[in-house]
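Aim 2, interim progress. The first record below pairs a target sequence with its structure tokens.
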Amino acid sequence: MLKIYNTLSRDKQYFIPIEPNKVRMYVCGMTVYDYCHAGHARVMVVFDMVYRWLKASGYEVNFVRNITDIDDKIIKRAAENGESIHQLTQRFIDAMHEDERALGVLEPDHEPRATQYVPQMLAMIAQLEKNGLAYRAVDGDVNYAVRKFAGYGKLSGKSLEDLRAGERVDVAEGKTDPLDFVLWKHTKESEPAEVKWDSPWGVGRPGWHIECSAMSSELLGKHFDIHGGGADLQFPHHENEIAQSEGAHLNEDGSHSQFVNYWMHNGFVRVDNEKMSKSLGNFFTIREVLQKFDAEVFRFFILRAHYRSPLNYSDVHIDDAKSGLTRFYTALKSIPVRPEPVEGWKIDWQEAHAQRFKEAMDDDFNTPEAMAVLFDLANEVNKTSDCYLAQQLRALGNVLGILQRDPVEYLQGGAVEGGMDDALINVQIAARVAAKQAKNFAEADRIRKELLATGIVLEDSASGTTWRRA
């Protein structure tokens, strides 16, 4: 039975869905004003893995991942570029989708944009005001009164006494308390018309936190199973979501209804053991990474670490991941496998490796242990050349979004600019074969070394010589 580490309870808990065999899951998506970076890639891939495993486990999943297309940074970037908000956001939404497809990330069931749900946000703010948790400040903003919500801090473990206005807590003169956060921002004359909406509190636009509360409750209901996102969102964003959603939705007896049962947060991406950030200059977009590395290798690198652990990014670690993925495809290379059926590869869950794989994934999505099982299975395929085990390897790999390519295509792909093309490599291999037949072994060895120096590895077998890129 699946166990999930619940940030709210700070321990692993058996997963019991609200509705039998159905899962409602919401994940905080991207703020689209720039290209997605390696940290975004981890969120994409991690919760894609969760989505895939829930479906492989037989659940009917309703997966929502939002897009924030209205934000201070978006307004500022559009003004700097001299383009409309819509032009900017659509361009980066398209780029985000390209990145997701490259990484093998499945589309969510719903991908709401914040600008499409402003009426729902206004309704929730009005309800919070009615419940005594929101107030209009002298500057025209509508703020949430944090100290009036008794459960504030239960997700992050922070007490109101310990909290101070800090890096991610906005401070404004109109707030009753420094910890209060904005629900509705009054408009500024300098802002474009496309970010101005009418409201009972005057023309303005929504704050960041209210977006996810409104979109999730509209698409999944007031109470749903799983809410996910990066560790940086735990406070204040997710804490504020709880305050908003539970503060707005009351039970018949006036108590606050529960918003989410299981909270999941993936760990940070680090570079040389420092958190990746633009300010430190160790910031990489997904596109920059994929210029250097195969997209499946990058996905494999992300999943090789447990989703809650820090992920230390480096070329050395990704090269090591490439070697691991190459071991899988090398095992599959010489095994004839039937064409993939329309409904996808079927897993034999009674088989020993599949059972171990399931045990690992049911233990809080333990992908490192699941990968270890796949390596054991690949070793068996190498030893036995068993088509059934090779199909198991592909089918289990598909649950993680890997091992679905033609092995030769993978092993011979990834040519770098200025490197040898396939035709020239085959000419060199033919010349080596001729040298060996003429017993000119020195020349044959020279050709092998020359190819290896350009990143081409030759592999001799009884059936002939094949090659792959190192």
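The second target in this work package is listed in the same format:
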Amino acid sequence: MKNKHKTHKSAAKRFKITGSGKVVHRSQRVRHLKAKKSKRQLRALKIDKPVEGRMKIKIKKLLGKA
């Protein structure tokens, strides 16, 4: 019988895997100090950003999807 791997809970709270297999995360710099950021910038920061490269493979492994 193979060992089961536990999901990395902090990674599960920060990242999400889409239906097509992409890994997305929330933008940084959107929590506070919003007054000096333009509305256009804040709208762009609301969109989930994809994770690219080697990090994507590592995150999928932490979430048990690799």
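Helices lie at 9-14, 39-45, 54-62. This observation will shape the mutagenesis plan for the next reporting period.
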